[in-house]
Amino acid sequence: MKRGASALAALAVVLLILAPLRLNGYAMDLTYITVLSIGLAYGWNIISGYAGYFSFGQIAFFGVGAYATALLVADAQWFWLPAAVAGGAAACALAVPLGYVMLRLRGPFFAMGMFGMAQMVRVLVTSIPATGSGAGLFLPPGSGITGVYYWTLAVSLGALALTMWIERSAFGLRLRALREDEQVAATLGVETTRAKITAFGLSALIPGLLGGGYAMFLTYIEPDAVFSSRLDLQSIVMAILGGLGTVWGPLVGGLVMTQVSEVLWARFPEIYLMIFGGLLVGLLIVLPRGIVPAIAARFAHRRGQ
Amino acid sequence: MVVLQLAINGVLLGGVLALSALGFNIVFGVMRVVNLAHGDFVVLAAVFAAYAFAQSGVNPLLLLPFTVAVGFVAGALIHHLLLRRLPGEVAGAEASSLTLTFGLSYFLTGAGLAIFGGRFVSVPFLTGAFQIGPLSIPQARLLAFGVAVVLSLAFAFLLRSTALGRAIRATSQNVDGALACGLDVDRVRTIAFALGTAVATAAGTLMSFLYNLNAQQGVLFTVNAFAVVVIGGLGNYTGAVLGALILGLTESFASYFVGSTLAEAAPYLLFILVLLIAPGGLRGRRTT
Predict the structure, then answer these.
(1) B94, A280: Cβ pair inside 8 Å?
(2) Taking a contact as any Cβ pair under 8 Å apart, which residues of chain A between 257 and 276 contact chain B?
(3) For the segment B46-104, what is each residue's pLDDT rounded down to a tens digit?
């Protein structure tokens, strides 16, 4: 099963790399959004899947990355690529001090605290003159979607590689230890604060890097577009649907979700949200651990383990 | 004078917020579930009341028993058919109940939009105001406040002085103890969740006097209830009333002094501050 899965994954990556040669217009936009959401899901999966700190506010880092990039490109005339990297750095620079404060909270307190934090960042951006006071910022039409797409693909693949490393490394073990029981982990010598903040920083870096690309994709950004609760929620659902704290979960969940959501949107636009919510609830009851662990369990069972 | 007027507005708003938060609080207290669909029950009841008023002029207060009954049955069904089936004592149990109520929130928002459309509606009911010197007290707000206080007291009586209330409090204090005493914990949880949604729909019916709403505004009320409950201490009912007054006053003053955009951030700022300074809430136990 391992070999089959790797072959499938390799095929998916090749197809994604070749996508801009074949696709254009709407299909290309959809592919871009798919890769973007998968990348966001991988970012979220580190702090929430591996470390067990459920965050409803990672979109704040996406928005900060997007705004930092937009300001550098529009006001300082940077080329967008280094600006997007700077966006990731900005998100990380915000996340580390924020993590020191917020990661003292646990469970639903952390989840809602982060939600509140993201809302506050959005309100702040809406009311500061430098960011256009909520009226938005215009960007010069950039390199078109191809450049942005490859940047997003590269960051998302990087996030996948990072997750594969976490899965095998001592760092990943530390994160899982503190997810299962933070106090026990601490007594066993895990520097929990450091591990948590590192995970939080990585979980902010990825959306930060992706945000700049999104700003270039939109060419006009405003707070509601980049602090989008829809993108945030979609990436969370993807990671959970695929399998929380697994390497392939965000990818599998992302591919399934974007396709399902696209079909639903095309066929039943009026009751799309309703079906989407109903599906999520139903899946949780049927597959509480997500698709990937369920398949893995099925295969292990077949081999008589 | 302005200060006094703002204080009156804040207290009147706080009464309704307190009622809504009671529903959120009982669900967390008994089940340790943060119900992300709470605000959607509030908003759906409000939108429904506004439509009933627009269509056939039904007094929203007469609708109250009906919306409460629907909320109760819906909550009981949701717990019995869905929440109960989630894996219990495994890692990530908290995450799965959050995700489930989150999916439910989408479902209810979608259903509300499909049934009622996206237009913002409210009940133009008792639009006058009592004038006391320079102060004016909007009649609709006063009525909503009064009904909310009555319902909250009824709720407190239920919790304090009935067998069901004792069972609910016992389950929230210690599940194993409640089981050992022969309580049907599963049934208590179903009733607690149903009470939570019933209170939410009651609060929503009253909110229809105060706000212009559409089905998408649920998040706002989930956050408000969460903020109130965090400020007062999760599972603490008198604390929640205090929290609701603080939040109502903060919103009222903030929207006057710093403008409505920045005032949006007030509940978030308030609850993050409280979480960091007094993680158990202002009146909570210091165990978290």
Answers:
(1) no
(2) 270-276
(3) 999 999 988 888 888 888 999 999 999 999 999 998 888 877 654 455 677 888 888 89
Residue A305 has pLDDT above 80, yes or no: no
- State the pLDDT confidence band at A166, using cuts at 50, 70 and 90: very high
Listed by number, the residues of chain A in 42-81 with a beta carbon closer than 8 Å to a beta carbon of chain B are 48, 52, 54
Task: Indicate yes or no: CB of A278 within 8 angstroms of CB of B219.
Answer: no
Answer whether A273 sits within 8 Å of B82, measured CB to CB. Answer: no
What's the pLDDT score for residue B287? 41
A216-235 average pLDDT score: 84
Burial A36-70 (b: 16+ CB within 10 A, else e): bbbbbbbbbbbbbbbbbbbbbbbbbbbbbbbbbbb
**How close does chain B come to A109, measured CA to CA in Å?**
8
Domains belonging to chain A, first-starting first, are 2-302 (1.10.3470)
C-alpha to C-alpha distances, A241 to A217, A245, B12, B29, B106, nearest whole angstrom: 27, 11, 43, 28, 15
Q: Which of A121-130, A134-143, A198-207 has the highest mean predicted lDDT (pLDDT)?
A: A198-207
Nearest by CB to B272, from A117, A276, A279: name it.
A117
Quick one: pLDDT band at residue B199, thresholds 50, 70, 90?
A: very high
Nearest alpha-carbon partner for A237 in A220, A254, A214 = A254
The answer to whether the CB atoms of A276 and B110 lie below 8 A apart is yes
H or E segment and range at residue B198: helix B185-210
Between A268-282, B85-99, B155-169, the lowest mean confidence (pLDDT) is in B85-99
- With 0-12 / 13-18 / 19 or more C-beta atoms within 10 angstroms meaning exposed / middle / buried, residue B213 is buried
Q: Does A286 touch chain B (CB under 8 A)?
A: no
Residue B137 has pLDDT above 60, yes or no: yes
Is residue A30 less than 8 Å (CB to CB) from chain B?
no
Q: What is the DSSP string of B112-161?
A: HHHHH-S--B----S--EEEETTEEEEHHHHHHHHHHHHHHHHHHHHHHH
How far is Cα B92 from Cα A54, in angstroms, rounded to an integer?
A: 10
Are A203 and A46 in contact by the 8 Å Cβ rule? The answer is yes
Average pLDDT, chain B: 84
| CB pair distance less than 8 Å for A113 and B107 | no
Cβ–Cβ of A277/B99 closer than 8 Å? no
